[in-house]
Each structure stands twice: as structure tokens, then as C-alpha cells.
Amino acid sequence: MTNTTSTSTPARPGLVLVLGATGKTGRRIVPRLRAAGHEVRAASRSADTFFDWNERSTWAPALSGVSALYLVAPDDPDPVTDFVAEAAAAGVRRFVVLSGRGVDVSGESFLPGMARAEAAVRKAGVDWTVIRANNFAQNFDEDYAHAPLLAGRLALPVGDVAEPFIDVEDLADVAVALLTEDGHTHRVYELSGPRALTYAEAVAEIAAASGRPMRFEAVTAEQFLAETVTAGVPEPLARELTAVFTFTAEGHLSPLTTGVRDVLGREPRDFTEYVREAAARGAWEPAPSGA
To answer: N- to C-terminal Cα distance for the chain?
Structure first.
């Protein structure tokens, strides 16, 4: 990761394709781009433009006329290299790739799509920028941690490792800058929050802000795998999740980074700010009866 502050200038990227447009990052990036006056094509299996990694006939219509691309790779890495090659041949010159911190260490041992996407754009002869992000703060109210927290117990095989969770709102601001400004070509930006805290500390903050009883329990990888499978998660996915959290427990994601400041010239949002806002909108309130 570079620590050199960019002197980027506004650019007009032409038509921007946002993959995963209805996902956690895409649904925040699309309105930011449009509010700034950029032409955007929002693509996913449920967006205005239908896109499916497993239906190659959907690739060309999504790529037609596109100059810049926000790439969220699928879990399955197999289609990624061919897609990047097709995108480059279609005239896409700027690629912003969402990846994860530690991919340079883990390779394709888990979340292989991200690692494959990084490798593909580097070889494609295009302008590329990679975002390697910490685990999202929003995982506590939009993803794997939400239901367990509502039930009062989040159990993960991460021990007492501390992590500086990144707020997805910051990631979205960074992605928009990378898609629309010059000066970021062939750079990897690692994004973290401004403060590392353990999962136990994170859950304690959420419990205090929401007024709900919640606790974190550190479990072994074997316990987590067994509980996850028992809860109905397919075993291959459960094993992948176990590998991700085991990797986290090794401390690879713990150091703070300067990526948000390098791109945006400001500090990232603190986890407490995320918790306060999420609690205020009822993120950890139980669903109404019958909903």
C-alpha cells in the first residue's frame, strides 16, 4: 500500500459499470456517482441491468459502452479472468477492484474470487486500482453477525484479536474517488477504521447503544464449524467462513492503515459513530411479530 497522498484531479470516467449494485458496497456507490453527475449502469441479478457471472450472455450487454468498472468478484474464481479480458476488449480502461486485506498472504486459499480478480486486472493492460478492506462494520447489522446478536450471542473463532473494522460508507467514498479521479493507477489501498477493537469490545458497544443483552463468545474453529453447519449453512461455505475467521485470529487484519486518508484526505469514521447511527435507526431491534 502506498502512503503517498495523491494529488488527484477530477476526471470524467464516461459510463461507469457497478457490479454487485444491490450489494453492501454497490448500493452505496451507485447513488454517490449519480449525485455527482456521472452516468452509471447498475448491474446485478436484481438491478436495472441484469448481470450473472454464470450466464456469460449477460456480460456483453452490461459492458457495452463502459469506460470504468467497479468489480466485485464472485466467490467462484473461474469466470473472473475471462470476464476481465472481455471487459478490456470491450473498451473498459479503468478497473476498481474490491478485495480483502490479507489476500496477498492467503492467496486463493479462501475468497479466491478476490485474489483472482487482482491477478487478472494486473495482467490485462488496463488502469487498475485495488481496494483491500478490513471486515465491514456493517457486518454487525447487515450480515453474518446480525441474527446472532439479536439472539444475544455472537460466537466466532477469533479469540481476543483486535480489528479496525471499516465503515462501508467510507469504502463507498473511496471507490467513487478511485472511479472518477486521476492519480490512483496501479495502486493498492488498504482500508481500515481508525481504531482496532476486539469482537468482545464491539459487541459490548452495540449492546450498550441498543439496550439489548448481547455477549461475545470466543469458540474454537471446530466448535464454530459444527455450530454453523447445525444452523443450516452448507458445509463448504461453513468451512470457508471458518477459514476466514481463523485467518483473522492470526492478526493479519489488526494493523491500522492510512488508505482512507490517502484517498480522501480525511480520517475514517470510528466504529462508535457507526454503532450510534445504526442503533438510532433500530438496526438491532427485533423484527415486528409476523414480519
So the answer is: 45
